[in-house]
Structure formats: structure tokens, C-alpha cells
Specification:
- The complex is a heterodimer of chains A (about 120) and B (about 120).
- Chain A is mainly β and about 120 residues long.
- Chain A contains no helices and eleven strands.
- The relative contact order of chain A is 0.33.
- By secondary structure, chain B is an all-beta fold.
- In chain B, a hairpin with a 2-residue loop joins β5 and β6.
- Chain B starts with a strand and ends with a strand.
- Classes of the chains: A mainly beta (about 120), B mainly beta (about 120).
- Chains A and B meet through β4, β5 and β10 of A and β4, β5, β9 and β10 of B.
């Protein structure tokens, strides 16, 4: 059973456009929602994260929007640049003592930003 | 430089030949984990370790073993590899998150691409 559903699988955006990646979850115990960015040949790296206490978090061109009632969260990349071309993974972690280390990942979105 | 290292980076082997993929971190992190990444399936956790001598199964542990004898090392062992274990493997580490609702970034290694023929 997939606990974090991510869409789309791939996305092509023109330079300067907005990239939007969506994720949905079922487990109400999830309490931490990070996004990881992975460039070809590299390991994933934390991009931005949010907790359900807030509905939005912004860091530079990257924004997470969070809808607790709908159990959905999304990543928005404003003014997308060719250097943003990468695979993006949403993830979720429960708040349960040591289990707050356990990340469940979405299947990933391959973003291509054309110049 | 703070980092997670994995060796080897690439490995081609044959069915049934035991192999070990090493993982080492120099950040004094308590938590370490192994993931496999497959096209269309994302990242799936194999095993994790909360500290030395403490390990537990993740979502896809079948066919794998781990050990945590030292804080910095967390090797992944495939005792009898099979073709369905052909994958890209990542090791990750994280510092201890004290208390509930305390989360820390997981730092990933560069990956090991394994092919089992």
C-alpha cells in the first residue's frame, strides 16, 4: 500500500514558469513533510520541509503548500530555472518517538526545465 | 568535509555470490538507514539503525542483512544476491532528534548501483 502518492511522474516547464508537484497521504499520524531534490548521479538532498502547524512555508523560489483537511501538500517552484531540473521526492514521517526518523517517500517527479 | 560515503559505487555480480556494500559517515550521527531506489517506485527503506547494536527492518528487508558495530559504519550485506536486487542503493544518516515532534534532515550518500546477473 502506497502511503504517499505523488504526481505527476514527470513534468516539463519552460524557464521562468511555475513548477507544481503534488502529494497526498492517508496516514493521519504523519507529522513532518519534507521534499528532497535529487540530481543525476547524486543522492537526494533535503530541499524544504513543513509541519502541519502551518499551511505554507517559503524558502526563496520554493514554497510548500499544506492542506491538512485534504491530506495533501504540494511543492511550487517559482521562476523555474534549468538548474532546477532534477527528480523531486515528497516524503512523510510520523510523530511517534523513534519513528520520527522513518521517512515514507513518494515515487518521485522528474522535472525538466527547458531554457 | 561532512559526508556519507559508500563503496563500491558500482558493482556487477552474479546470483548467489555474497557481497557487502559499505557505508560510513563522519558526522557522529546516531541514525543510519539503507534505501533502494527503483524506477517508478521511489525510495524504499530496507533497514535502519537508531544507534550502535540497534537495528530494525524497514519496508523491504527480505534478502538483506545489516550490522552496526560502530557508530560511523553501517554495512549492507546481501548473502545470496538475486536479480531482483538489482537496484540503486543509498545509505543515509541523521543526528538524534530529541523529543517528539523533533525532526532532523537525513543526509544521503552518493549511491551504489548494483547489478545482479
Amino acid at each position: 500500500q502506497q502511503q504517499v502518492k505523488q504526481s505527476p511522474q514527470s513534468l516539463i516547464v519552460q524557464k521562468g514558469g511555475i513548477s507544481i508537484i503534488n502529494c497526498a497521504y492517508e496516514n493521519t499520524a504523519f507529522d513532518y513533510f519534507p521534499w528532497y531534490q535529487q540530481f543525476p548521479g547524486k543522492g537526494p538532498a533535503l530541499l524544504i520541509a513543513i509541519r502541519p502547524d502551518v499551511s505554507e512555508k517559503k524558502e526563496g523560489r520554493f514554497t510548500i503548500s499544506f492542506n491538512k483537511s485534504a491530506k495533501q501538500f504540494s511543492l511550487h517552484i517559482m521562476d523555474s530555472q534549468p538548474g532546477d531540473s532534477a527528480t523531486y521526492f515528497c516524503a512523510a514521517s510520523p510523530n511517534s518517538g523513534g519513528s520520527n526518523y522513518k521517512l515514507t517517500f513518494g515515487k518521485g517527479t522528474l522535472l525538466t526545465v527547458n531554457p | 568535509e561532512a559526508q556519507v560515503t559508500q563503496n563500491p559505487r558500482y558493482l556487477i555480480t552474479v546470483t548467489g555470490k555474497k557481497l557487502t556494500v559499505t557505508c560510513s559517515q563522519n558526522m557522529n550521527h546516531e541514525y543510519m538507514s539503507w534505501y533502494r531506489q527503483d524506477p517508478g517506485l521511489g525510495l524504499r527503506q530496507i533497514y535502519y539503525s537508531m544507534n550502535v547494536e540497534v537495528t530494525d527492518k524497514g519496508d523491504v528487508p527480505e534478502g538483506y542483512k545489516v550490522s552496526r558495530k560502530e557508530k560511523r559504519n553501517f554495512p549492507l550485506i546481501l548473502e545470496s544476491p538475486s536479480p531482483n536486487q538489482t537496484s540503486l542503493y543509498f545509505c543515509a544518516s541523521s543526528p538524534w532528534a530529541s523529543g517528539t515532534r523533533s525532526y532532523n534532515e537525513q543526509f544521503f550518500g552518493p549511491g551504489t548501483r548494483l547489478t545482479v546477473l
